[in-house]
């Protein structure tokens, strides 16, 4: 009985501690939010301060929206002759829009101004601090600008019809004397009176591409949204999800590079890629093969080599575009010698002519025998810089950024130490190895009647081509089987049609799989490099299949009521991310094999 009573008391104490912990967390969270809100409201402004706002909202091709708010601070006539000093000002936006923010900057005629981010339950705030107190007296004024770039506020309704929502006014903690809003549409957009709220905007031009709204006064804590629809056959929604630039330097200083782009697009028939200046030997690939000269255009600009790629029809239909561009760079333009054994690689991750790349990665493989000294990068917000060993005598440097916009200069300097004798070391070692191997083989042949040690068989171009074709055919059949499953589940085809078509596809897959195994054996016999590539390819395909089965299991569990909608959403997002990563690995390997064919 005593043991049982002791257990009851322990459980009671644990329950009490848990309850008190939850109360403490809730209390701290509530107090923090309240204090944050009070801090915002405590940032008072002088009573005799007048504020006028000019807001320009520009819809940009690519699917982004730029908002420029220019604030004019002045002293009211009622302020008398006593100077008005302003040390800071708070500007905000409704919190639901802050999730779409990809870039912000506050500046005046002298450059950028420091800001501090604050939040409450309804708004996201920028507390702008002026380097020196601004002295406002009668007939004097001070202005500064807040630039915001937002994504995912423009959506595509049909092939050429788009709609946009946006915050109509800036959110301020105090009343503004006036707010003049100008909405600027793309130059080729077409709008009619039914495509925007006429009670809010006034058309000041004949073609409706510039709309205005003047509000006086603008009340504090404005949280008003507006909208517009427009048609435009040239407007594009284009997201650069990832740029991965891989650069290799050999022992003689030769620089080769390959850029991998992952793009999400709608209504896009061509893509412009910007390579570093003086890039040569440019070759473009996608998952379906190499691009011909007719599908690629080059132009040399002051900021780099612009590669215009006219996308294949298959790629346009995907919505998710993956492109690889390989090229060479002249060492004299990118490698600087610093002393007798130190070198600096100067490379600029030049952005495409779009507003943001959500993930940027630079991978530099140093010459064999080189050792990294340091990596200098100007924007000082790299998500991580790390060094890995490729071999006992070779290093690889990784630098990664998130959400890089066109305004940022991502020029990176990779400094390393390299002794010239390494350039001749490998040929010397190779010659010694050949001589040594010849001696060993001679001795073995002399002392044994056995045939010599088998050596790896080189892979012919024809085998590589067939292997790539078989992989792509297998992917096509798997995709058709998935589509068939969806059509059957939705009742679009009969069960008899489903069985016949499935049996036909399974027969094709069996034949392709047999060819794959035969070619795989030949590839693996050619050496470790190809064996590793095939291993990674099979691991990626296995990961894709496992994740697809997991998605099906999640849907079944959700329909049975075993998991909540939030858990379902979280699991599906995770599984789809893992599928995207595995597909990227698979596509990268096939692209690398296609390079071998050239």
Give your account of this protein's structure.
With 598 residues, the protein is α+β, with helices and mostly antiparallel strands. It folds into 3 domains: 42-231, Immunoglobulin-like, CATH 2.60.40; 237-419, Immunoglobulin-like (Sandwich), CATH 2.60.40.3140; 461-597, no CATH class. Helices cover 34% and strands 37% of the residues. The chain contains 9 helices and 30 strands. The chain has helices at 2-42, 95-98, 313-318, 331-334, 421-447, 461-489, 495-524, 528-559, 565-597; strands at 49-60, 64-75, 84-94, 101-108, 111-112, 115-119, 123-136, 141-150, 154-156, 161-167, 171-172, 178-184, 202-203, 210-215, 225-231, 237-249, 255-266, 270-275, 280-286, 289-290, 296-301, 304-310, 320-329, 335-337, 342-348, 356-365, 371-376, 384-391, 394-405, 411-417. The strands form 6 sheets. Strands 5-4-8-2-1-12-14-13 form an 8-stranded mixed sheet, with no helix packed on it. A hairpin with a 2-residue loop joins strand 21 and strand 22. The longest helix has 41 residues, at 2-42. The chain is globular, with a radius of gyration of 31 Å.
């Amino acid at each position: 009985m005593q043991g049982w009573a002791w257990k009851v008391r322990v459980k009671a104490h644990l329950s009490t501690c848990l309850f008190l912990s939850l109360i403490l967390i809730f209390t701290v969270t509530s107090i923090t939010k309240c204090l944050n809100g009070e801090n915002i409201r405590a940032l008072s402004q002088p009573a005799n301060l007048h504020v006028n706002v000019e807001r320009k909202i520009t819809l940009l091709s690519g699917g982004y929206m730029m908002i420029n708010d220019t604030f004019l601070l002045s002293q009211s006539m009622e302020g008398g002759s006593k100077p008005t000093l302003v040390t800071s000002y708070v500007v905000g936006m409704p919190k639901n829009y802050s999730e779409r923010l990809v870039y912000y900057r506050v500046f005046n005629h002298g450059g950028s101004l420091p800001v501090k981010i604050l939040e409450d339950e309804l708004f996201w705030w920028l507390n702008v601090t002026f380097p020196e107190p601004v002295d406002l007296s009668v007939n004097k004024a001070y202005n500064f600008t807040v630039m915001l770039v937002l994504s995912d506020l423009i959506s595509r309704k049909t092939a050429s019809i788009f709609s946009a929502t946006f915050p109509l006014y800036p959110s301020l903690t105090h009343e503004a004397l006036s707010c003049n809003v100008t909405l600027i549409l793309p130059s080729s957009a077409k709008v009619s009176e039914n495509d925007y709220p006429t009670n809010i905007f006034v058309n000041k031009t004949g073609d409706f591409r510039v709309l205005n709204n003047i509000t006086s006064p603008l009340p504090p804590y404005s949280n008003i949204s507006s909208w517009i629809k427009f048609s435009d056959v040239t407007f594009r929604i284009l997201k650069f999800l990832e740029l991965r630039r891989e650069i290799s330097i050999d022992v003689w200083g030769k620089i080769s590079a390959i850029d991998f782009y992952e793009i999400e697009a709608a209504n896009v028939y061509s893509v412009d890629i910007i390579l570093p200046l003086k890039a040569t030997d440019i070759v473009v690939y996608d998952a379906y093969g190499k691009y011909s000269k007719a599908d690629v255009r080059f132009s040399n600009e002051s900021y780099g080599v612009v590669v215009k790629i006219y996308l294949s029809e298959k790629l346009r239909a995907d919505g998710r575009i993956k492109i690889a561009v390989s090229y060479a760079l002249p060492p004299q333009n990118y490698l600087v010698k610093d002393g007798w054994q130190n070198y600096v690689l100067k490379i600029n991750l030049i952005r495409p002519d779009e507003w943001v790349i959500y993930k940027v990665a630079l991978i530099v493989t140093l010459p064999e025998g080189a050792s990294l000294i340091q990596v200098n990068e100007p924007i000082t917000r790299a998500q991580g810089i790390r060094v890995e060993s490729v071999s006992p005598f070779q290093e690889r440097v990784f630098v990664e950024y998130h959400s890089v916009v066109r305004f940022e200069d991502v020029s990176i300097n990779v400094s390393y130490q390299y002794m010239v004798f390494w350039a001749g070391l490998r040929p010397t070692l190779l010659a010694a190895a050949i001589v040594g191997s010849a001696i060993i083989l001679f001795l073995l042949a002399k002392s044994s009647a056995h045939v010599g040690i088998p050596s790896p068989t080189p892979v012919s171009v024809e085998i590589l081509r067939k292997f790539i074709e078989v992989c792509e055919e297998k992917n096509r059949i798997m995709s058709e089987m998935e589509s068939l499953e969806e059509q059957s589940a939705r009742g679009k085809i009969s069960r008899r049609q489903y069985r016949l078509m499935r049996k036909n596809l399974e027969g094709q897959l069996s034949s392709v799989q047999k060819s794959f195994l035969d070619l795989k054996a030949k590839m693996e016999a050619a050496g470790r490099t190809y064996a590793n590539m095939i291993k990674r390819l099979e691991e990626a395909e296995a990961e894709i299949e496992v994740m697809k089965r997991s998605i099906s299991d999640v849907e079944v569990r959700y329909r049975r009521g075993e998991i909540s909608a939030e858990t379902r959403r979280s699991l599906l997002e995770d599984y789809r991310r893992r599928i995207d990563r595995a597909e990227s690995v698979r596509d990268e390997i096939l692209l690398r094999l296609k390079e071998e064919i050239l």
